[in-house]
Amino acid sequence: MEQIAIQGIAGCYHETAARGYFADREIEVLPCLSFDELFARMAADPALLGIAAIENTIAGSLLPNHELLQQSRARIIGEQKLRISHVLAALPGQTPDDIAEVRSHPIALMQCGDFLKTLPGMKIVERDDTAGSAREIAEGRLAGTAAICGADAARLYGLEILRRGIETNKHNFTRFLLLADERRAAEFADPAHTDKASLLFTLPHTRGSLSKVLTVLSFYDINLTKIQSLPIIGREWEYRFYVDVTFDDPMRYRQAIDAARPLTSDFRILGEYAECPNPAI
Amino acid sequence: MEQIAIQGIAGCYHETAARGYFADREIEVLPCLSFDELFARMAADPALLGIAAIENTIAGSLLPNHELLQQSRARIIGEQKLRISHVLAALPGQTPDDIAEVRSHPIALMQCGDFLKTLPGMKIVERDDTAGSAREIAEGRLAGTAAICGADAARLYGLEILRRGIETNKHNFTRFLLLADERRAAEFADPAHTDKASLLFTLPHTRGSLSKVLTVLSFYDINLTKIQSLPIIGREWEYRFYVDVTFDDPMRYRQAIDAARPLTSDFRILGEYAECPNPAI
């Protein structure tokens, strides 16, 4: 059975995304307390797969994960997109008036900012994980405390849902990357369905260097779905570029890479995989 | 005296940045509890200036502030860059062994991740503000609790610094934008020193549309210092582009804008201002 390291504990959004991606096979999820731990476990065990959130339509790119990815030997073997809908959950029998403290992951707290503003005086406590907040409350029998988490986590830990859909913006989607060690990535290659790639490159500080690269890509009918200049830590305000592209013709894509590579330095293909369709709202 | 809305309370990094920018004149800072409040106060009072962090070399872009900026009538009149160095501060007489809880802003907590890992079992509590955490501890005489904040805040609120330089990465810089209502922006125009601009545009979903825009900019000797595709909320996985450019010749810059604009939709100049030199480490 395939083992997949996830960030978070049982019931978390990463588990939901991993099970969605591997819908047709049995998987075992290995909870990790942080993205650092996830990448460290993958580095220690090349057989292990992983899944890591990389961007969210509200919070934007998760830059620390970009950094961990580029420092690792992991390759992207696929992507999964998930609509994120948060609930407020507490011990059975609790009412909203009983709640004096809300716990969750900082990004989930931010995503529920408007809802939290309707609860003046509420103590907000940052935790490592949305599902972990639910488990803490369940295991500690913590009356007066609620978690912001997914409905899956509330159900798994036997909490009662006090409010559903408390995220400020309903257009709240997270994109996850499926990862494998570079020595295993070839096993997951599926050329017939490969239509997306994630690229990373550094550019010399000459004017127009990025426009040359993008122009070459467009000459070969490569479509850009994301571009982000990343700070290069240690060289302030200089940037590396992270680019996602989609394409119809794999041969044209190969030619585009061959043509663009000499215009860059540190050119890396982080992964070639099948694009995930956008989920419904 | 010029009034400037800052995010955070007296002693916070925003105040340090504002006073650094207006080093040659008296200013009065108006503390705001959130960026939402800062933009709301500026909208209510067109005479008010503002300062808002927009990116950090570690945490990356602050996407919610991009969103607030583009929905506002504010213009960028300048930028300030600040090296961020955090301290751990507590009531005078406390030792590190006395501390059971650390409070700070979620981004500051993240930036001190390695330091916090050396304190197993420590309760980590998210607060609105780094300086606010220091003030809470001082006003509440909270023994056993420490704040992660700037040295300015620790000094202002009479806390003792237990540890300095606890940020994981010393290459920790934040870039702040100075903001004025569009009706006041012209007062701050300084054509002789204007060499940077922040642009925002949306592109049609045709291949090569971004490469065309960047190629035109490069034809006119415009240098790209930052590019970021921003999610358009409500249109998932479609992107708006936020681009910072620098230039030597203002006439060439004008010509470049005139040439690039028809290739885009929703083209906006968020501000034209003087580039801030990079601070020393």
From TrEMBL, chains A, B:
Keyword annotations from UniProtKB, A to Z: Amino-acid biosynthesis, Aromatic amino acid biosynthesis, Lyase, Phenylalanine biosynthesis
GO biological process, one term: L-phenylalanine biosynthetic process
E.C. numbers: 4.2.1.51
MF-aspect GO terms: prephenate dehydratase activity
PROSITE patterns: ACT, PREPHENATE_DEHYDR_3
UniProt-listed InterPro entries: ACT-like_dom_sf (IPR045865), ACT_dom (IPR002912), Chor_mutase/pphenate_deHydtase (IPR008242), Preph_deHydtase (IPR001086)
Known pathway: Amino-acid biosynthesis; L-phenylalanine biosynthesis; phenylpyruvate from prephenate: step 1/1
Pfam families, per database record: PDT (PF00800)
Annotated ranges, domain ACT: 198-274
Domain of life: Bacteria
Site features described as Essential for prephenate dehydratase activity, chain residue numbers: 174
Catalytic activity entry: prephenate + H(+) = 3-phenylpyruvate + CO2 + H2O
GO CC terms in record: cytoplasm
Residue ranges annotated for the Prephenate dehydratase domain, each copy included: 3-181
Class of enzymatic activity (EC top level): lyase
Name of the protein in its database record: prephenate dehydratase
